[in-house]
Design a protein that fits this description.
Shape: flat
Subcellular location: Cell membrane; Cytoplasm; Membrane
CATH architecture of the largest domain: 3-Layer(aba) Sandwich
Mean pLDDT: 87
Organism: Ligilactobacillus equi DPC 6820
EC number: 7.4.2.8
GO molecular function: ATP binding; protein-exporting ATPase activity
Structural class: alpha/beta
Catalytic activity: ATP + H2O + cellular proteinSide 1 = ADP + phosphate + cellular proteinSide 2
Helix content: 40-55%
Largest sheet: 8 strands, mixed
Number of helices: 30
Radius of gyration: 31 Å
Number of domains: 4
Strand content: 5-15%
CATH topology of the largest domain: Rossmann fold
Low-confidence stretches: none
């Protein structure tokens, strides 16, 4: 481990030396740009764009472009990027992750590579973690971009209830630089690929350049769950309540077994027997009982893997999910595959419709579509290998502008949660008595409220920031550095917001960050410590840990659990601090195991999405061709119809089945007496007869439509509608399939292999369904003429 760390530092030093050489070239242009008047400096944008058109590369242009934008930042914003910020900008331009410590000015750093990459006219996007940061950065930096002759737009808007039109979104994404969030950008991509005409599309043809702020949170932490757009509801099940009642009768380890690491739960033979008696079925795993066992499994998962106040809260008789990393409310988000409805049943509130998944993509596959992707954060080096493996980005640690003065104290470890609470609270009181501001970070809403109660009992004024009080998030965090301030917040809250310290606070030792739990990775520990000691300010960080912390409970070794059971009795007045090296190492090992599990989960999410990604590319490419090249496409309509008829005839249908096929697929107005003229057992004759009916229907449609252009548009819409209907069904099937294959682990099967195998079968079936639906859309649709609007087509 030490060798790897040394090797990593050596590699980073080599990268930094290379970047310093480019920095020298930027600095060599400093005086030249400073000597220009405003008009001359602004004219540089036109000059740079012309040089790019003539073939000059962005790399060659970098020193001048960075120097010009740096001077513009100084004149318009009153801030001249430090050398370290220029270095960070170089890393970002190269398509890598710039590790810039908290307070080093990532917002200003991004102006340099955004300006350079926007000059090519292909667009540049800055992605933040929330709407507040996007809007803040957009408003702060808009003047300098526009002064330099670039257009800039904001992808998020205040009223989330009011949907933007395609025209408004097109105006946003056509800007040179766009500030938005990962969620808005991802959902815009999925929504656009549900468009049925060119007028409904708004994104650029290809994704050019993107910088992701707080990239470890967006590209790693959030990326464990795919983006999903839900649409039409399924038929509502009445099994949620019944199965919820049933699982309350079960005992863990007797009736079911639980694997918290894999987040999986299953019935034991005893549990299966109990279920069969309860539901009065002979075999609960019989095909006809598939929905029943699915609902039992959902109820088991909800009761054992989801916790009120930690994973979700109930507000106004509605389940609202909580962000696992920061405790923020995720209003409007729902768990898929029936999990959300199972939670509603558990909490005895009205069960909402279970919606079909219409479109889905993982963040990994989404962001990998950019020609060049970059990221910036304060903590990424420990996850460098994952960034390389998934996003092909190296992590470069950029030196700080001023030396870090923060004092990072070693963790204090206690046996029980109450002892840890008492010990950490004693430190809070001690710091508060001398006026030093305290930022107390908790891992859950409940713990934040316990600390709040303790502070109230001591008469200490404080602010609380959790899922129940997130409206003033940025303001609360911004004030956390004031004299005597005590702020209780859930992890990661207010990330991206600067905490500024008055002079008297700096004299007292700066902001004190107190972590109250061992977090899921060392990277998260560093993120919280980084809230103190920005830009060379003094600061203090201290973590308090107990053997009852979730990470230790889930990932700790067996002997540490046995030690806890032997020593769990405690005295409130005398917290017992553990200092044995073996125990400290065991807790560190638990954190490393947890972090490893997170990496494994993200890798699994990406592997599951590979089949979806291949299918998505094929379907979206076909849709785009239909939408963008409608007049030039050559449709082999009769070939499609012939294939569908031949598929039907494989099963040797009788006269009645042929009649049904005609009415269900070819024509509503068929004269049944015409069937007497053919020999049903003569397959070639039946095929020719069915093709003749189809040809008649197509000729009728052609006569009703005005010209060849309208006929081709009719074909295009019929095919597009069929693709969309079947693709929505396929996306939903793949979402359901992920849940189903997990249970195959019990039979010692590889769930990812099983998923890909079933996904191929599902895709081939979808292709047949699309062809069949195209035939129905072409032949059973109606053309209705309206004197004012012209022809309208109504599909069956």
């Amino acid at each position: 481990m030490a060798k790897e760390s040394l090797q990593s530092r050596l590699v980073n030093d080599i990268e930094v030396r290379k970047i310093r050489r480019i920095l020298k070239k930027v600095n060599a242009q400093k005086d030249k740009m400073a000597a220009l008047d405003d008009q001359q400096l602004q004219a540089k944008t036109v000059e740079f764009r012309q040089r790019i058109k003539q073939g000059e590369s962005l790399n060659r242009l970098l020193p001048e472009a960075f120097a010009a934008m740096r001077e513009a930042d100084k004149r318009i914003l009153g801030m001249f990027p430090f050398d370290t910020q220029v270095m960070g900008g170089i890393v970002l331009h190269q398509g890598n992750v710039a590790e810039l410590k908290t307070g080093e000015g990532k917002t200003l750093t991004a102006t340099l590579p955004l300006y350079l990459n926007a000059l090519a006219g292909k667009g540049a996007i800055l992605v933040t973690t929330n709407e507040y940061l996007s809007q803040r950065d957009f408003e702060e930096l808009r003047p300098v971009y526009e002064w330099m002759g670039l257009t800039v737009a904001l992808g998020v808007h205040d009223n989330s209830e009011e949907k933007l039109t395609a025209k408004e979104k097109r105006a946003i994404y056509s800007a040179d630089i766009v500030y938005t969030t990962n969620a808005v950008l991802g959902f815009d991509y999925l929504i656009e690929n549900l468009a049925s005409s060119q007028e409904e599309k708004y994104l650029r043809r290809e994704f050019n350049y993107c910088i992701v702020d707080e990239c470890d949170q967006v590209l790693l932490d959030v990326a464990q769950m795919p983006l999903v757009i839900a649409g039409a509801p399924r038929v509502q099940s009445n099994l949620y309540g019944i199965c919820d009642t049933f699982v309350t009768l079960l005992e863990k380890d007797k009736h079911y077994e639980l694997d918290e690491e894999e987040r999986n739960v299953w019935l034991t033979p005893t549990g299966i027997e109990k279920a069969q008696k309860y539901f009065k079925v002979a075999n609960i795993f019989a095909p006809e009982n598939g929905e029943l066992i699915r609902h039992v499994t959902l109820a088991l998962r909800v009761h054992n893997l989801f916790e009120l106040g930690k994973d979700y809260v109930v507000q106004d008789d509605e389940i609202v999910l909580l962000d696992a990393k920061n405790g923020r409310l995720m209003k409007g988000n729902k768990l898929q595959s029936g999990l959300h409805q199972a939670i509603e049943a558990r909490e005895h509130i009205k069960i909402t419709p279970d919606m079909r998944a219409m479109a889905s993509i993982t963040y990994q596959n989404f962001f990998r579509m950019f020609n060049k992707l970059a990221g910036m954060t304060g903590t990424a080096k420990s996850a460098e290998q994952e960034f390389i493996d998934i996003y092909y980005m190296k992590v470069v640690q950029v030196p700080t502008n001023r030396p870090i003065q923060r004092i990072d104290l070693p963790d204090q470890v206690y046996i029980t949660l109450p002892e840890k609470l008492v010990a950490s609270f004693q430190l809070v009181k001690k710091l508060h008595q001398k006026g030093q501001p305290v930022l107390l970070i908790t891992a859950s809403v409940e713990i934040s409220e316990i600390y709040s109660e303790m502070l109230l009992q001591e008469g200490i004024a404080h602010s609380v920031l959790n899922a129940n009080n997130a409206a003033r998030e940025a303001e609360i965090i911004k004030e956390a550095g004031q004299l005597g301030a005590v702020t209780v917040a859930t992890t990661m809250a207010g990330r991206g917001t600067d905490i500024k310290l008055p002079k008297e606070v700096k004299k007292l030792g700066g902001l004190a960050v107190i972590g109250t739990e061992k977090l899921q990775s060392q990277r998260e520990d560093l993120q919280l410590r980084g809230r103190a000691g920005r830009q060379g300010d003094p600061g203090l960080s201290q973590f308090f840990v107990s053997l009852e912390d979730e990470v230790v409970i889930k990932y700790g070794s067996k002997w540490i659990h046995e030690y806890y059971e032997e020593h769990r009795a405690f005295d409130w007045d005398e917290p017992r601090q553990l200092t044995k090296r073996k125990i400290l190492k065991a807790i560190q090992g638990a954190q490393e195991a947890c972090d490893s599990e997170g990496v494994k989960s993200r890798k699994s999410s990406l592997e599951f999405d590979e089949s979806s990604q291949i299918q998505r590319r094929l379907v979206y490419r076909q849709r785009d061709a239909l939408i963008e090249q409608a007049e030039n496409l050559d449709f082999d309509i009769m070939g499609l119809i012939r294939q569908d008829i031949q598929e039907f005839l494989k099963n040797k249908p009788d006269a009645y089945e042929i009649e049904r096929y005609i009415f269900d697929n070819l024509s509503y107005d068929f004269d049944i007496n015409r069937l007497d003229k053919i020999t049903v057992k003569d397959r070639a004759q039946v095929e020719a007869f069915l093709l003749q009916i189809a040809q008649e229907q197509l000729e009728l449609k052609s006569q009703q439509l005005e010209d060849e252009v309208e006929v081709k548009n009719f074909y295009r819409l019929a095919i597009l509608k069929a693709i969309d209907t079947c693709w929505v069904e396929e996306v939903d099937n793949l979402q359901q399939l992920r849940t189903v294959v997990d249970s195959r682990q019990i039979a010692q099967r590889n769930p990812i292999y099983e998923y890909h195998k079933e996904a191929i079968i599902s895709y081939n079936k979808m292709r047949i369904d699309i062809r069949h639906l195209i035939v129905q859309n072409l032949l059973l649709s109606r053309v209705v003429y309206n004197p004012k609007k012209g022809n309208s087509i109504y599909f069956a």
